[in-house]
Amino acid sequence: MGGVLVTHADLPLGRRIVKLLWYDPGTPRIVALGEGPAPRAFDSFRIGTQPRLVYERLDHARQRSVAELFRSRRLRELEIQSVVYVPRHGASPEGRPVVAHVPTRTAEARLILHQAVEHREIRSLVALGSAFVYQLTPGNANHLLEDSPLDLDPAVPAALRTWIDSDMLFQAEAAGRRLRVTLLRLPTVVASGGFVYLHPLLEGAAGPRLRSAGFDPLCPVIADKDVAHAVLTALASPAVGVFNIAGRERVPLSVLGRWTGRPLLALPGPLLRAAGRSAARLGLGDPFDAPLLRFGMSLDTRRAAAELGFAPRYRIGLERAGDGALRLEAVTA
To answer: How many Cβ atoms are within 10 Å of 306's Cβ, its own excluded?
Structure first.
């Protein structure tokens, strides 16, 4: 498989992917990129004069920094052949929330993709995307395949637009011949301790959220460890294109919010839309009345099973945390 470069390796999903690659005997070298200091979890991976893990600090949205890294002699010497694009999410190693401004996620995706295409030694790119890019119709019967239409409504919230724009960038390059591009569309990612990632409403600090009264959509979920496993299978597979990746469970939004420490307060639709307009004027960008808060979905994952050989190994269950509170946990299936 050759060496692997992982973006945003200092963030939760990036750290999880790096750890799995470290224990994979088929990965000779890992270059982990982060915007902050190297996570302490990597300390034992960087021992020796020629460690398998190399950590580099990088502003992923700065064109000059990204270009200099990909064109550097050092990267060529490390024999990197694959890139794993992990988008901004969660919190920094210091515990500060990571804010993905509207242009930032799209800019990072464009820069990383362009440099991977231009680099002669890089042969494949695996990108983490979002299942919330799909167009949802009323009800919970949205069973979505990879070729289901995307939500291209001009009124789509700005936070979702970044996912859609990035998705379309990777899709377009997947049709090319030089670089093998695999896009994994992920639902809500749940980690032990009730942490939740990649859900436009629930991600971030614990605390109350707002939702539309009269709706409680079903949300597919996946464990963070299964996300890392899906990346590893995609790196080892010759398959290219878009793949839905999900766990076995679907959870009502109200339940997902409550058991991750983010209870949802139901408001009438008109009041919620007014709150959304106020948030937009303040630049907060929360999707207060987006379809994802009203309509449920399930992901058809048969293509990932057939072509990537991916099957979830973990399920989402309730466990009692150290403070005595019940939290959603990723447990072995």
So the answer is: 11
Q: How far apart are CA 269 and CA 33, in angstroms?
A: 42
CB 187 within 8 A of CB 296: no
User: Please, what is the end-to-end C-alpha distance for the chain in angstroms?
Assistant: 28
Two structure tokens written together for 33: 């990129």
Q: Between the CA of residue 269 and those of 211, 272, 324, what are the distances in Å?
A: 9, 5, 35
Distances (CA, A) of 94 to 8, 90, 100, 210, 271: 14, 11, 17, 27, 36
User: DSSP letters of 226-247?
Assistant: HHHHHHHHHHH----EEEE---
Residues 6+ apart with CB under 8 A from 59: 35, 65, 66
**Contact partners, residue 50, CB within 8 Å, separation at least 6:** none
User: What contacts 63, CB < 8 A, 6 or more positions away?
Assistant: 111
Q: State pLDDT tens for residues 255-292.
A: 998 888 888 888 887 777 777 677 666 655 555 667 88
Lookup result for tokens 């996570």: 39
